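Hey,
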Amino acid sequence: MIRRLRDLSAARHREAGTALPPGAKKIVSWNLLRRTGAAVECIVALVEREKPDLVLMQEATEGIAAITDRIGGVFARAPLPGRIHGPAIWSREPWATPPEVVTLPSGIIVDRVCQVLDLGDFGVANVHLSHGQMLNRRQLRRIEQHLPARAAVLGDYNIVGPALLPGFRDVGPRRSTHAMIGVAPLRLDRCLVRGLVCHERAVLPRGLSDHRPIVVHLAPATEDAPQRRRIRDMAAAVARLHREGGRAIRGRRDRPASAVSPVSPG
């Protein structure tokens, strides 16, 4: 319930146009479901509605490149070896250099690649990891070797449980983004960051894909951001202890006299 309220609050801030710090980027990540899922029209509608700086796509097919004819910007796609689909990035602003394509440790069936884009203030990796729960963590460690000090890794992780990427924090939405066989809800689409602060996060409507897009607002962390975060966490812990202590005192005060153990004579 708390996580859902946080995501709803972030959505309200987004609708209200809350000012974000300099250098902040609004990034959407969406697994499109290749041929049968979200098409160019769906992405155009999403961009017009959300107005992101970047859209990271997984399972993008060749036809998705038509997005630049519709709304401008720049686009790059990296098809997986022997597949019709792969990761792709659309950017509202031109990039200084195209995304780097990084080859990942191979799975039994599918060979994987990811895209790494240098935004200047930080780097962004667009990922669609393998289903093997050991392999996809190895792939993350390979990706980390191509990232600058400040970086974000977004996309379809295909991970159940923590990603376990040293130095990175999971700041993406905590709601499920995919229903396995339409039944079991899973949080497969994630955002891990290092040296960045996530100011807003949300899960967006699913549309025609089997995944729901996620959106995050990321900005470089200032030097005192970790200290402020520790102070905020400590204040929250103290407040929680006060609340628990108050409930305990009220519970003892409201306890019937018959429930109190008699005192044995000395």
